[in-house]
Amino acid sequence: MKRLAWLKRFLPDRFVVALIGAIILASLLPVSGTAAMVYGHVTTAAIALLFFLHGAKLSRESIYAGATNWRLHICVLLATFVLFPLIGLASRPLLIGWLTPELFAGLLFLCVLPSTVQSSIAFTSVARGNIPAAVCSASLSNLLGVFITPLLAGLLISSQSASGGGSLNAVVDILLHILLPFVLGQIARRWIGEWVAAHPKLVKFVDQGSIVLVVYGAFSASVVEGLWQQTPPAALLVVVLVSTVLLALVLGVTFAIGRRYFDRADEIVLVFCGSKKSLASGIPIAQVLFAGGALGSVVLPLMVFHQIQLIVCALIARRYAVAWERDDAAAPANAPSRS
């Protein structure tokens, strides 16, 4: 049983399996024509519902509780919106001959995305870090990402790959499809907040289900446009390698800064919130910013990076937890554990 439990930690969860299944189904049976138009309206509604529920379940009190640690939050934002884009830009001379323009645009898009919320907080909890600060940092990153991500995407990504990433229309679409539902969810929280909190499985189903719907639609459009014929196998291997190196570099920087300037609980927040990228926010934003035919290629680096970050951060969180347990065991019974 212990061996099975240990092995289960390294197997993909149902969400990952569903994403892989959506890609396979889109590759074999892509939706197209009139059906694709109807499907697009369904995914738009699903995205709006996703961000409405995010607004309804996010407690203002939890944000206020961690808002005073401004040094930590600034470091997380710098890692998310400055360090990542700088690494992405610096990689251009090395990768431009290995990746298609759409895949490199996807890499840059990955670099300008906000941090995750749910998994960042979950890993912080497993690692016994500062949970209120993680809630504040991850939430602030996502709220600012609504504005910063389209702006940085318009500045960094070539107009040949993006469909007006920095245009006013794209920003308006972001506000209507993402920010407005989120604000409405916050307003409705006083009436439905308790219900949302009492049904976490339903909220999780809507959250993950909407992403699976968008992934299927995105890859369907790309398959119709010849995604797999235009993406060399070598380029896919490069995406995996680059995603791994990118994550390792950011983890190294955030770990070094966290160890030097923060206690361990805040260091954990910086490591997890500063190194992770949001699939839940990234795919809906990409759907608004990029043309349908290029969308599958653009979100491919994000999906690869997402799987790698989950596996690596799960291992790191466990190592942090073991370190806490070792310190607790070594400390006197009446003394507090080291932070």
Automatic annotation (TrEMBL):
Keyword presence, Lipoprotein: no
Domain of life the protein comes from: Bacteria
Record field: transmembrane: 12-32, 38-58, 70-91, 103-123, 135-158, 170-188, 209-228, 234-258, 279-305
Keywords attached to this entry: Membrane, Transmembrane, Transmembrane helix
Coiled-coil residues: none
InterPro entries in UniProt: Na+/solute_symporter_sf, Put_Na-Bile_cotransptr
Protein name from the UniProt record: Na+-dependent transporter protein
Biological source species: Salinisphaera dokdonensis CL-ES53
